[in-house]
Design goal:
alpha+beta
Length: 76
């Protein structure tokens, strides 16, 4: 099994093109796992996140898709 690629919420936000609050919400909804505690000590696995892309000519940013909600869970 591959080891997690753990990063801070700020790094995960940059990777996906989303705000830090969205990373925190996804974790609280169970879309992604939180590792290593709460607050600034928490880490998130990049393998669970979809990377943002930037169009090479226009510079247009396409946000990474949100992870799916677990079965039976409603979005916040």
């Amino acid at each position: 099994m591959n080891r997690p690629q753990l990063v801070t919420a700020a790094d995960a936000a940059y990777y996906t093109g989303r705000p830090v609050g969205t990373i925190w919400r996804w974790a609280s909804e169970g879309r992604i796992h939180r590792y290593g505690g709460k607050g600034k000590a928490a880490r998130y696995d990049l393998r669970e996140l979809d990377r943002k892309t930037v169009h090479p000519w226009t510079g247009e940013i396409h946000l990474g898709d949100p992870p799916p909600l677990p079965a039976g869970v409603r979005a916040a």
